Amino acid sequence: MDLTGQIANFHFNHILLNAAGVKCQTTAELDQVLASPYSGSVVTKSATPMTRPGNPSPRYYQLPEELGSVNSMGLPNEGFAYYLDYVLNKKTDKPVFFSVAGLTKDDNLAMLMELEQSNFNGLVELNLSCPNVPGKPQTAYDFEATRAILTEVFSFFTKPLGVKLPPYFDMVHFDMIAAVLNDFPLAFVNTINSIGNGLAIDPHTDTVVIKPKGGFGGLGGSLVKATALANVRALRERLNESIKIIGTGGVTSGRDVYDLVLCGADLVEVGTQLMVEDTPVFERLEGELANELDKKDYQSLAEIRGKLQIIS
Ligand SMILES: O=C1NC(=O)NC(C(=O)O)N1
């Protein structure tokens, strides 16, 4: 059974990997994801130029009844140089994603320039959608700002680059972001980032569940699955076929992986459920995915990729 994926010149023997932010802040975590026989890759925690402690704790909360998670981490990371050192020296035959999330356009441009001039031979993800830095907007909700930064980036960047997008909820917004992205030689888009600024309440104390921003945080896990499917499907229908899609959000079972591929995903990322189960989740999900394909006598993901049927 062929459960592989392809982005640019990179072949992935398995389509599952971590979502940026989960199990990827330290070299030990990155090594553990890469070491899983069922992960196809790893993505680093989104890097800022300098190390960052992030927001005050509690800043991550697992919702009851496996509904999902709320987070306001605030981009805690070891700093750009730490991850560059890791990816330049790590021996692996799996493609690696390097995620950057500068707090300013200049920070993003500086990090991308350093990556461009380095010997890094993986894929780069420009995170335009972190919802958790107080006072900072999710850039990709501003279509002109997104066009402006991509114009500057592609004036010098030649390595495989993708963007991490926030979820959109309006068909016109799908049209507008696709019109921007189709003007650039992107290798991929990764959709969705968490659904920004949700709120959860502890019923025992009548209190919010995380400290930053009065309790407002990004939503992940099963409660975001319908939005993740919609964003993968809408962008697959609108983007040039040269722009591949990483589907992220709402994955807790092999059927969820199958559904994202049905909507057009080339790779699939796991966030909240990886926090819950750790790296054994990759083996469980791939096994369940293979069972789903078996049920319908499919031999490969290629047979179902983008093949979601509508009611005519
Ligand atoms: O892009 C991000 N998305 C999230 O949901 N959380 C992290 C963070 O807060 O660092 N960043």
Automatic annotation (TrEMBL):
The keyword Oxidoreductase applies. Its main location: cytoplasm. It is found in: Cytoplasm. The keyword rRNA-binding does not apply. Residues 3-293 form the Dihydroorotate dehydrogenase catalytic domain. Gene3D superfamilies: Aldolase class I, Dihydroorotate Dehydrogenase A, chain A, domain 2. Pfam families: DHO_dh. Its cofactor is FMN. InterPro entries: Aldolase_TIM, DHO_dehydrogenase, DHOD_1A, Dihydro_DH_chainA_dom2, Dihydroorotate_DH_1_2, Dihydroorotate_DH_cat, Dihydroorotate_DH_CS. Its EC number is 1.3.98.1. Keywords: Cytoplasm, Flavoprotein, FMN, Oxidoreductase, Pyrimidine biosynthesis. Pathway: Pyrimidine metabolism; UMP biosynthesis via de novo pathway. GO terms for molecular function: dihydroorotate dehydrogenase (fumarate) activity. SUPFAM superfamilies: FMN-linked oxidoreductases (SSF51395). It catalyses: (S)-dihydroorotate + fumarate = orotate + succinate. Belongs to the dihydroorotate dehydrogenase family. Type 1 subfamily. Homodimer. This is dihydroorotate oxidase (fumarate). The gene is pyrDA.
